Amino acid sequence: MGILSGKIVLVTGGSRGIGEAIVLKFAELGADVAFTYQSSEEKANAVVAEAEKYGVRVKSYKSNAADYNEAETLINDVVTYFGKLDVLINNAGITKDTLMLRMSEEQWDQVMEVNLKSVFNLTKHALKPMMKQKAGSIINMSSVVGVFGNAGQANYAASKAGIIGFTKSIAKEVGSRNIRCNAIAPGFIETDMTHALTEDQKKAYIDNIPLKRLGTGEDVANACVYLGSDMSTYVSGQVISVCGALNT
Ligand code: NAP
User: Fold this and answer.
1) Is 132 inside any structural domain?
2) Residue 103: which domain range?
3) Active-site residue 226, yes or no?
4) Ligand 1 atom closest to residue 65's alpha carbon, by position in its atom list
5) For residue 184, what are the β-bridge partners?
6) Domains: count for the chain
7) Long-range contacts, 2-6 (Cβ 8 Å, 24+)
8) Which of 37, 54, 156, 205 is catalytic?
9) What is the pTM of this model?
10) 5, 101, 155, 216: which has the fewest C-beta neighbours closer than 10 Å?
11) pLDDT digit string (tens) for 100-139?
């Protein structure tokens, strides 16, 4: 029996990177896992096969987190298939980095829709079953960039800062129903999102990180385990940084 046995978790963007690490860690610790992806079907099938090795139920869904109606259908499908929803992890996210003077309206809108509106979409529909159950844990993937800002990422930073305000508000709104809502602010984590960095850029970042390495998906997944498990039943409305003491 793992510490997540009996829990049903839904992870958005579980086909790659941090989301994939979360799916595998939750499965390893006994949770049944639903996860979404946008386009990488083959990758999603491989993650399902890997997670099923832990003997839990795993199902992937092709669902655009930025689409309100698809989010509603997804939550209904997950609750019908798995019977309930204990933990929602709003992890799906994208970057469209560029300096403000060059940023198009489309680059702004896409990032806000996939990173921030998705959190509204999924939370809005997940609250119904969670309120019925009188229990739930919602975990939203922010970023250190949402706390401190970053040149060339005004759209991304705004979306991640918005997630923090949303998280604290939801924690206050539904705390009386025993539903918790927290955010995680990862620093530099090695995934496809950060693979575009050159070796020189990586070295420059690592020089500034007190723990002297980039983070892994598993580092972030472990923080999700804490927030999704009953180890954190009195923790809500918080932002937990997983950043190797960068920006501390
Ligand atoms: P990633 O490797 O690029 O993976 C992104 C995941 O999100 C993929 O599974 C992708 O699905 C999915 N996705 C993208 N758009 C989607 C949509 N509209 N609907 C549903 N799923 C969608 O990213 P990552 O580095 O793991 O980042 C995960 C989260 O952590 C993001 O919110 C990111 O902002 C945040 N974060 C990352 C870092 C970092 O250093 N990596 C730091 C701070 C915060 P497909 O495979 O189908 O494309």
Assistant:
1) yes
2) 8-242
3) no
4) 19
5) 141, 240
6) 1
7) 2/28, 2/29, 2/30, 2/31, 3/29, 3/30, 3/225, 3/229, 3/230, 3/231, 4/29, 4/30, 4/31, 4/225, 4/228, 4/229, 5/29, 5/30, 5/31, 6/30
8) 156
9) 0.98
10) 101
11) 999 999 999 999 999 999 999 999 999 999 999 999 999 9
